[in-house]
Amino acid sequence: MQNRIVKSALQNFHFFGLLLSAKFLLSTQKYGILVFMSLLISVFIIFGLYRTAVRFRDTECDGTIKFSQAFLYIFILYLFGTVISSIVIFIYTQFINKEFLDLSLSVIMKTYESLKIHIDNQTYSVIERLFRPLPYSLLNIVASLFTATFWSLILAGFVKMEKSIFE
Q1: Packing angle, helices 2-27 and 67-91, rounded to 10
Q2: Can you give the three-state secondary structure of the chain, one letter per residue?
Q3: pLDDT for res 147
Q4: Within a 10 A sphere around the Cβ of 136, how many other Cβ atoms?
Q5: Which is nearest to 105 in space by CA: 91, 95, 119, 85?
Q6: 87-133, pLDDT tens digit by residue?
Q7: Per residue in 30-51, pLDDT tens?
């Protein structure tokens, strides 16, 4: 069963990688409508994960699936999609918009100042190193581990159900 989960996830994760990449690229824009579209993509990703997992349950598992299997399938889909997204983030921050990370760091430092949080030089140095293309891309993968776990826990419960939540 594990092989079927991984095989199916490897066949379907590309779509989620493209969606996560589009979400990032739209969220970097200055126009409000494009940022709003990135939020819509977030909702579409969740719905897509659910529908893909249900399709996997119905076609590959004969209509029944354990919670752990549904969790693993959704987790792998999201995590592998995040790898594609992280590659896009690296390319974007390294070659296309080199100022993006500097501007993001500046916004974070202004936020700390407005909240009256003192940042010493050593802490600033660490934060500054994280806002370079490769560490930033890898940090995206780490953060997505938590996001993938969160959505996998929620969606796996719905996928395990015998009836669709929309019926």
Answers
A1: 40
A2: CHHHHHHHHHHHHHHHHHHHHHHHHHHCCCCHHHHHHHHHHHHHHHHHHHHHHHHHHHHHCCCCCCHHHHHHHHHHHHHHHHHHHHHHHHHHHHHHCCCHHHHHHHHHHHHHHHCCCCCCHHHHHHHHHHCCHHHHHHHHHHHHHHHHHHHHHHHHHHHHCCCCCCC
A3: 96
A4: 20
A5: 119
A6: 999 999 999 999 999 999 999 999 999 998 888 999 999 999 999 99
A7: 888 998 999 999 999 999 999 9
Amino acid in the structure at residue 148: A
- Tokens read off for 52: 């893909």
**Looking at this protein, which amino acid is placed at residue 111?**
T
Residue pair 128/105 in contact (Cβ under 8 Å)? The answer is yes
Tokens representing residue 49 in the block: 């994960």
The count of residues in the chain is 167
